[in-house]
Amino acid sequence: MARHSDLYRLIQPLPDLRSADGRGPVLVHGLEGFSDAGQAIEGATEHLRDSLDSQLIVEFDADQLVDYRSRRPHLKYSFDHFASYDEPTIQIHAVKDADGSSFLLLSGLEPDLRWDGFTESVIDLAGAFGVRMSIGLGSIPLGVPHTRPTNASAHASDVDLIRGFTAWPGEFSVPGNVSSLLELRMSEHGIPSAGFTVHVPQYLSQTAYPAAVLNLVGSIAKVGELDLPTEELEKSAEEFTSQVNAQIAHNAEILTAIEHMEKQYDEFMEARMGSDSLNPGGKPLPSGDEIGAEFERFLAQQSGGDSDGEPQPGE
C-alpha cells in the first residue's frame, strides 16, 4: 500500500468491509471529467453517498493530481469579498447498502496528472481492503430519444460479469481516461472489473438527466449484488420526462425530429434482438445536433440561467 502513499491519506478508524461470509467489498469508481453527459456520474455517486450510510476513509491529494488551469474551481464572491472556494476532491467512501453490505465508492474529479501513480494507488488500496471486483461508471451523449428506455454499453474483463447487458461491437481506439485505465489495470492485477457507459440524449446532455443516473445505479446493484435505493431516482426521472414533454408539446420541429429519432431507434432495437451488438446493421443513429439548438431555452430553464451550448471539459 506504500508505493504511492504520498498521493493519499487514510482516515482512521477504518471500518471492517468484509461480509459475514468473508467476501471483500465491491469498488465502484465514478470520476468526473472526461465525459459526464447528463451529469450521470456525478449524480450516481452523490446519490450513493447521500442516500446510504457512508464514511470517508481515503482522501487523495488533489494538488498533485488536478490541473486547475484546465478545470478551474469556482470561488464564490459576495458583494465585496471572496467568501468560499469549491475545493476539488478525489475520495473513497465506505458505503453500506440497504442490507448492510459494505462497498467502496471512489468519486470526485478525474486526475489530470500522475495516472500511473493514481491507478497503482487505487489498486494497492483495493488489495489492502480485499476488493473482490470493481465497477466503473461512464456517460456519453448520443443521438437517442428521451422517449425510449435509457440504455448503457457494458464492458468487462470477464464476459460472464455482464451477461444480459449490451456491449459495443468490434475493435477501435478511444480517448484515454482514468476510469477506463483503472478498469484495465484492475483486470491485469487479477481483480475482476466491469464498467457501464450510459447513453444520454445529445440534446439533453448539458443538464442533469435522472434517467441516466437511475440506469447506472441499477447496473451497479445488479452486477455488484447490492441493494441500492432507486425510488427517488425513479420519481425524478418521471418528473423530468414530463417537463421535457411539456416543453416540446407545441414545437412541431422538435416533435418531428424526435419522431425521426424514435423510428431509427426502434429499427435499431429490432435489428439488435437476439444479438449483443449495438450496431443496427451499420445504420447510424441520427445526430442530436439537429435539435440541440431548439432546446437552449429548456436547458437554460433547467440550469437557472442562460445556456451557451458549450460542452463541459472533456465532453
Automatic annotation (TrEMBL):
Domain of life: Bacteria
An example Gene Ontology CC term for this record: proteasome complex
Annotated InterPro entries: Proteasome_assmbl_chaperone_2, PSMG2_sf, Rv2714-like
Protein name (Swiss-Prot/TrEMBL): Proteasome assembly chaperone family protein
Keyword field contains Disulfide bond: no
Organism placement in taxonomy: Bacteria, Bacillati, Actinomycetota, Actinomycetes, Mycobacteriales
Organism field: Dietzia aurantiaca
Keywords: Proteasome
Positions of region (Disordered): 273-293
Pfam families, alphabetized: PAC2
